From TrEMBL, chain A:
Organism per entry: Marinobacter fuscus
Designated name of the protein: Spermidine/putrescine ABC transporter permease PotB
Keywords attached to this entry: Cell membrane, Membrane, Transmembrane, Transmembrane helix, Transport
Cell compartment(s), UniProt: Cell membrane
GO cellular component annotations of the record: plasma membrane
UniProtKB/TrEMBL annotation, chain B:
Translocase keyword on record: yes
Name this protein carries in UniProt: Spermidine/putrescine import ATP-binding protein PotA
One annotated GO molecular function: ABC-type putrescine transporter activity
Family the UniProt entry places it in: Belongs to the ABC transporter superfamily. Spermidine/putrescine importer (TC 3.A.1.11.1) family.
InterPro entries xrefs: AAA+_ATPase, ABC_SmlMolc_Importer, ABC_transporter-like_ATP-bd, ABC_transporter-like_CS, Mo/tungstate-bd_C_term_dom, P-loop_NTPase, PotA-like, PotA_ATP-bd
Gene Ontology CC: one annotated term: ATP-binding cassette (ABC) transporter complex
Domain of life the protein comes from: Bacteria
Main function: Part of the ABC transporter complex PotABCD involved in spermidine/putrescine import. Responsible for energy coupling to the transport system.
Catalytic activity: ATP + H2O + polyamine-[polyamine-binding protein]Side 1 = ADP + phosphate + polyamineSide 2 + [polyamine-binding protein]Side 1
Gene: potA
Organism of provenance: Marinobacter fuscus
């Protein structure tokens, strides 16, 4: 107690941080958990008694389908981001410092525009009479416009477009930390390029891969406005389901249960990330 | 008897128009401990990397036992490297680090296990096989790096300033250990360092490098006692340079030289001398004798610094003409009062015959260039 009085600044900061976490992180999440365990009520949204109905409903084949489809689109998004982002981040770590700054700047610039606006812009590009179709026709590569908008493809493109920087930045940071002498050591000990990639580069960049996957996969399941704008009625994300349950169907317990599923998936990924870092001794264990 | 293993011919390399190696020739014998010694930027690390295959020369060739390796990729060379910062794979255990090279050779599992255990036993780390590199001390990581390189039984082991990250005491221990390993394994060691003491104590031969050129190649003793030029003399150990002028060449293979107005007789050097020619008289601090001011011999000066070093007393003496002299004297057990006060007048002399003569060079190296370590 004497300590608290002696260090008012420290105490103030601690109170602020803990207060923040308690009221703005823990409480809302507890409320969501609570809501997921309540009964649906058209008038007051939620009411007693406590029940596991919402979770039971998650197992409904209809929603399981949405979940799997959402997972599929998110996984495709993540895969494309990884395939594009991995070599990009690698190259980024290799170019000169001046180019590096410029490239990272270009990567971050889109964040200054609202993602909703950018998604609408993408719609203009992908539309039947959009920039892409017109361009391809002008080049004579296609004879008539291809249906791009309102397809699964459009949703995935939209998600990749919005989330790619979140894959590249953590990967860039692990490539920056990748020591040149480890690659030299690998070659010196008789490993070719492929063996070095498999045995040294991949394991050492794995924390970055997992961080990138974490930052892409879960948001990709939640970004409901992307299918709303670019997708057809069948290309739903878990985010759409949650949004619909809260805003349209007024089934709060079910919406809460669905969002808890996402949170749990996130926790699982974070755990895997921690393990991968511990493996290379970055956790100080 | 000594067989050449590695032959370097005319190796030349430029970075950004600056010559890092300049038409370098070197023959390295089978089973020797060779040290590349020089200040940073002298080309020693580039030379080592070329042998390892991480750099390719602009010109010249590297052959090992008759086989041309100049442009061979590192993974196909029968040489292995111990890196400056060990470069241990952080995600692998000690065992896997050491086994890596053998796995790449696709050796059978049993053989790998046995050879890794042998290599780790050799560096006294057999109990640390399951540890990760970050759980080891610097000295232990160093040993793993050595085990990882020698487990492949290379013809040549390249060591890139491997001890520079260790503290002084550990470095001494590792020096002895490396020397022992080299004797036991009979592998050729090529050791890069900027630490002249390390070079002298470990090597069979020392290559002194500066600006991509070999300044001297010889045994530690040759390099220390008979430096080929002023650079080597300055870089290897501490040296006093006294300006001298040839007074007379004598018939009995000696010359008379005027040093500080003293006429001293020296052995005739192996470069040509004529009366009136200026030259450098080199004397190591341990060759200097400090005498009482009443003594007839020597040159007058006064003590400006004294450093007690345990077994020796090192002092700096300013001669009356401003020349600075370093002296390092062993304690005289018969004289318990042996010591100097600062400012005490003394006379400085030396034993004739212990000197080394070098011709005055037209572009005498400025002092700063020589000091790097």
């Amino acid at each position: 107690m004497r300590n608290l009085m002696q260090q008012p600044f420290r105490t103030a900061v601690l109170v602020l941080v803990w207060g923040w976490l308690l009221f703005l992180v823990l409480t809302p999440n507890l409320l969501v958990v609570g809501a997921s365990l309540m009964t649906r009520d058209p008038a007051t949204f939620i009411s007693l008694p406590l029940t596991l109905d919402a979770y039971r409903q998650l197992l409904n084949p209809l929603y399981l389908d949405v979940f799997l489809n959402s997972l599929y689109m998110a996984a495709m998004t993540t895969l494309i981001c990884l395939l594009v982002g991995y070599p990009f981040a690698w190259a980024l770590s290799k170019v000169g410092k001046r180019h590096q700054v410029l490239l990272i700047f270009l990567l971050v610039v889109p964040f200054w525009t609202n993602s909703l606006v950018r998604t609408y812009a993408l719609k203009l590009i992908l539309a039947t009479n959009g920039l892409l179709n017109n361009g391809l026709m002008a080049l004579g590569w296609i004879d008539e416009p291809v249906q791009l908008l309102y397809t699964e493809f459009a949703v995935i493109i939209g998600l990749v477009y919005l989330l790619l920087p979140f894959m590249i930045l953590p990967l860039y940071s692990v490539f920056e930390d990748l020591r040149e002498d480890l690659l030299r050591a690998s070659h010196d000990l008789g490993a070719g390029r492929l063996a070095t990639f498999v045995h040294v580069i991949v394991p050492l960049t794995l924390p970055g891969v997992l961080a990138g996957v974490m930052l892409v996969l879960l948001p990709a399941m939640g970004l409901f406005f992307v299918p709303d704008i670019l997708g057809g009625s069948r290309n739903l994300l878990v985010g759409n389901v949650i949004k619909n349950q809260f805003l349209d169907a007024r089934n709060w317990p079910f919406g809460a249960a669905a969002s808890i599923m996402l949170t749990l998936a996130m926790a699982l990924l974070m755990f895997a990330h921690k393990l991968s870092k511990r493996r290379i001794g970055e956790d100080g264990v | 008897m000594k067989q050449t293993l590695l032959t370097l011919r005319n190796l030349t390399k430029q970075f950004d128009g600056k010559k890092v190696l300049d038409a370098l020739d070197l023959d390295i014998f089978d089973g020797e401990f060779l040290t590349l010694l020089g200040p940073s930027g002298c080309g020693k690390t580039t030379l080592l990397r070329m042998m390892a295959g991480f750099e390719h020369p602009d010109e010249g060739s590297i052959t090992l036992g008759g086989q041309d390796l100049t442009y061979t990729e590192p993974e196909y060379r029968p040489l292995n490297t111990v890196f400056q910062n060990y470069a241990l794979f952080p995600h692998m255990s000690v065992f896997d680090n050491v086994a890596y090279g053998l796995k790449m050779e696709k050796r059978p599992k049993d053989e790998i296990r046995q050879r890794v255990e042998e290599a780790l036993a050799m560096v006294q780390l057999e109990d640390f096989m399951r540890r990760k590199p970050h759980q080891l001390s610097g000295g232990q990581q160093q040993r793993v790096a050595i085990a990882r390189a020698v487990v492949k039984r290379p013809k040549v082991l390249l060591l890139d300033e491997p001890l520079s990250a260790l503290d002084y005491k550990l470095r001494r221990t590792m020096q002895v250990e490396l020397k022992r390993l080299q004797r036991e394994l009979g592998i050729t060691f090529i050791f890069v360092t900027h630490d002249q003491e390390e070079a002298l104590s470990m090597s069979d031969r020392v290559v002194v490098l500066k600006d991509g050129l070999i300044q001297q190649l010889g045994t530690p003793r040759e390099v220390y006692e008979r430096p080929a030029n002023l650079f080597t003399a300055r870089f290897v150990g501490e040296t006093n340079f006294f300006p001298g002028t040839v007074d007379n060449t004598n018939d009995d293979d000696t010359i008379t030289v005027d040093v500080f107005g003293l006429k001293r007789t020296f052995r005739k050097p192996d470069f040509s001398v004529s009366p009136g020619q200026p030259l450098h008289v080199l004397l190591r601090p341990e060759d200097i004798r400090v005498l009482a001011p009443s003594d007839e011999d020597g040159v007058a000066g006064k003590v400006v610094e004294r450093n007690y070093k345990g077994s020796t007393l090192d002092s700096v003496i300013h001669l009356d003409d401003g020349t600075e002299v370093l002296a390092s004297e062993f304690f005289d057990e018969d004289d318990p009062t042996f010591d100097y006060r600062l400012g005490e007048p003394v006379r400085v002399s030396w034993v004739d015959g212990w000197e080394w003569l070098l011709p005055a060079e037209p572009e005498d190296v400025p002092e700063e260039d020589a000091i790097d370590a």
